[in-house]
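Each letter names a residue; the fold follows as tokens. Both lines appear below:
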Amino acid sequence: MKKYHVLVVFFLFSLAVSAQSSQSFLLNLYGGYTFSDRVDFDSSYARVEDGFEYGIGLEYFIMDNASVELKYNRLDTRMPLYTKIPLSEGSIPAGTQLNAGDDKGAINYILADYTYYFGSSSQKALPFLGAGAGVAILETPRSGNGTYFAWEVKAGVKVKTNSPVSINLHAYLQSMSAAVGYDYYWDYYWGPVAVNDYVSTFQFGLGIALSYDFSK
């Protein structure tokens, strides 16, 4: 998986280098703090703990106030799994951590974002709203890697300087959805019908990005 991270970063960096003569590309370096979330299953629940999230993105302005971006972010975290009800005929009480000592994991987000900046491009501070969708690659010690649908929304302000570097302060909400089994329903015509059961994470975070504008 580490080789995969290197390839993603190298790909984005190569695009940035090739775009140095362009008037519309920015290279963004991300850092942020992502808060925890609880995910409930039928007989257990998991927590995706707080963690530092970091990444890189290449942003292209399709007009003065709007851009699209391809980015990669990684959240290194712990994912403890707890029982909600007693298991094994009561030998494992509720609230027991089932993966103690083996709960380290990570979520890798690969997203395509759209961002709209409010105001004139000549302003030093530009508020913005954005949203994106893509995939999340979940790393867990026991079950390996899985790829799931992911999305995010974000809001913040971009602060320009007199140099090619600008600072981007933002808040974000990220989500990842995964199928974890089946729920069964009775249909009068078909009989028992299995329907995929999905769970989702919803993690709020606060971040900062340093942007380098190749047009300056």
